[in-house]
Structure formats: structure tokens, C-alpha cells
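Support request from a user on the community tier.

User writes: "When I paste my C-alpha cells into the form, the page sometimes reloads and wipes my input. The last time it worked, I copied everything first. Here is what I submitted, just in case something in the input itself triggers the reload:"
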């Protein structure tokens, strides 16, 4: 692969098992928003931090996210018919950390049960109540497509994640 000419030297590699870390570093150059996805398990609310979220379609209103198969919470989210995706604001990195470690700690949070029992956490930058419509193999992840049945948003700066770190967005 050519490096594209002048500028900083690019590190070229062929993605595979022996270059998994380099592949992860390359993917980390793409800044993403940070979300918390929640569902009701029948044994209580469950959440997980994710940055694999994207819009799919406006008509019908579809979004996707992709839980990791290696996650201890995978089965609960793979089986969830109803869930909510919460886009985090720049001041909500503690919420991201909370749900990246333990998924059942909703103590002290302002939340209410939404459609299908999915927990709706207050104060997020945007929130999408979803009903699962499809799932697709995504290698070590599962691609979950949901129809958005309700959405809310507020003004504010997003929490971003890039190269293994949290950051913000500067308007120019």
C-alpha cells in the first residue's frame, strides 16, 4: 500500500491475528461518540458502554450498535428485544466508566423504565428507545439493528473517544 506522498510516515500492515494491536491502533484514529446501551433483563436493569453506534436509515428510523461477543453481558444484550441507546455528553465520562466496568450499578442514577422496560437514563445528550429488528454476524461482535420508537436530545458537546482516550469537540 502506498503512503500517499508527503506528510507523516504511515505504518502499513496487513490486518490479521499477528497484527491485531496495530489494527486496533489504526481503528482508534477514528474518533467516535460514546454511548451507554441499557436493557431490562427481568432480573433488573443492565447497561454497557459502547462506541459502536451508527444511524442506518431515516425512513424507517433505524440505528445499529455492536456488542462484543467476549463481553459477560453479551447474552443479555443479544437477546434483548427492547433497549435504549444513550449518547453521552462531554461531562459524562464517569457514566461511561461506570458501565464499562459493571453493568448492573444504577445506584444514584436518575432513570425510569421506558418501552419494554429498557432503562432511560436522564441527562444524556441524546437518547433512542429501540426495538430490535435484525441481527447480523460481525465477527467478534454482533451487529444489532433497532427501530427507533422514541428519541430525545438536548444541546451540548459530545463525549468523544479516540486512540484509547476520552476527549471533547472544539467548534471552530
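"...and here is what came back when it finally went through:"
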Amino acid at each position: 500500500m502506498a503512503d500517499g506522498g508527503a506528510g507523516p510516515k504511515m505504518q502499513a500492515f496487513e490486518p490479521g491475528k499477528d497484527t491485531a494491536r496495530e489494527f486496533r491502533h489504526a481503528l482508534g484514529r477514528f474518533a467516535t461518540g460514546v454511548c451507554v446501551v441499557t436493557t431490562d433483563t427481568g432480573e433488573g436493569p443492565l447497561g454497557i458502554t459502547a462506541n459502536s453506534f451508527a444511524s442506518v436509515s431515516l425512513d424507517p428510523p433505524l440505528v445499529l450498535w455492536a456488542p462484543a461477543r467476549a463481553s459477560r453481558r453479551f447474552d443479555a444484550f443479544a437477546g434483548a428485544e427492547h433497549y435504549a441507546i444513550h449518547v453521552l455528553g462531554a461531562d459524562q465520562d464517569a457514566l461511561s466508566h461506570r458501565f464499562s466496568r459493571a453493568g448492573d450499578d444504577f445506584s444514584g442514577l436518575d432513570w425510569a423504565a421506558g418501552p419494554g422496560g429498557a432503562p432511560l437514563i436522564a441527562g444524556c445528550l441524546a437518547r433512542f428507545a429501540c426495538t430490535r429488528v435484525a441481527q447480523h454476524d460481525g465477527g467478534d461482535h454482533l451487529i444489532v439493528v433497532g427501530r427507533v420508537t422514541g428519541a430525545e436530545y438536548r444541546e451540548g458537546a459530545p463525549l468523544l473517544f479516540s486512540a484509547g482516550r476520552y476527549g471533547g469537540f472544539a467548534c471552530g
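Agent notes: The reload is a front-end session timeout and is unrelated to the input. The longest strand covers residues 126-138. The mean pLDDT is 92. Escalated to web team.
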